[in-house]
Amino acid sequence: MSAVRTALVIGGGIAGPVTALALHRAGIEATVFEAYESGAEGVGGVFMVAPNGLAALRIVGLDEQVAAVGQPIRRMAIDDPRGRRMAEFGGVPGLPPGLALRRPDLYRLLLERLREAGVPVVHGRRLVGVEERIDGVTARFADGSTASADVTIGADGVRSAVRGLIDPDAPAPRNVGLIGLGGYSDHPGPGRPDHAAMHFANGRRAFFGWWTVPEGGTAWFSNLPHRATLTAAEAAATSAEEWLARLRDQHAGDVPAEQVLALARPETLVNVGSMHIMPKVAHWHRDRMVLVGDAAHAPSPSSGQGASLAIESAVELARCLRDLPDAPSAFAAYESLRRDRVERIIAQAEKTNNEKAAGPVARTAMRLVAPIALRTFLRPEKMFGPVHGHRIDWEAPVTAP
């Protein structure tokens, strides 16, 4: 039986609440501390939860609730800039479809589930330090308050304060040379609406994705090449109308991007600024502190796996703390279970980022070879099967590596 009975979870995004729920199921008392004064229920755009992420959510009792608010995506189509189909992927046989999900909806469901489970969430607590003792840890927050438990779990994202405490020389997130924008348009989409298909197009100057939504219109996103780092605050200093003007210029002549963006609604624009990826983090844990989710392994949104990998890691960490006798052995087992998988996916996402950020000549060359590659050595089933088919056996005991 584990000696770990209590945990401080730093970060109230996705990884933190899922970690706390999984710990609750494992019989470990957790409290979530969020730096912001309020929840993030109204913040963020749309993202995908892949089949592997949905399977992990089932373990914490959220699969049905998420399915009720998500849009099933059963096919992914790869188009050229003229809107012509180059390839189509119908999903991995035997697996359920992924879900397109509004980030605020997932935040709301997580908070509701935490309340049902009786897991406390404390807002307005920005971590500034952790004091480790032989029998536990005490976290210090910017407002002067403290909290103590057996372990501290850093689920505080790519700019993790806990990561810096574990290793002052840990890397910072790296700009991948793309800006992430998205929103909704009143454009109905070309042809008869197909709400089960998500389209990806490597346009002449920028990458574009879109899918029609059941309530009418089209959801879209674009990755604009932009080498200099742009923070979310800097991005917000430019109006939505100006960003849409830039997008319309970059996607001029692209089908259906040009038509979709012409009817894009400025009030729905989400601009996250520069997209980031985490370089390899050498140290995921130290003594009684450990990292989970983007704090340890943040693939860029190009992977389609950011949320799903964070959810998986949260569940695996809880299993390890449940089954192993002390924090160091649990953390070592957790890292052994997770590192190889997440780093392979991060490496693949980096290749995708390089393609999206390529110049016009390289983009043309990639469009010419893509149809052949997708029918041969880049078959989607081979690429996505091991990623989407991953399952965590909650009932199986964890052994030390």
Automatic annotation (TrEMBL):
Cross-referenced InterPro entries: FAD-bd, FAD-dep_Monooxygenase_BioMet, FAD/NAD-bd_sf
Database matches in SUPFAM superfamilies: FAD/NAD(P)-binding domain (SSF51905)
Pfam families referenced in this protein's UniProt entry, alphabetically: FAD_binding_3
Keywords: Monooxygenase, Oxidoreductase
Keyword set includes Oxidoreductase: yes
Residue intervals passing through the bilayer: none
This protein's name: FAD-dependent oxidoreductase
Species for this entry: Kitasatospora cinereorecta
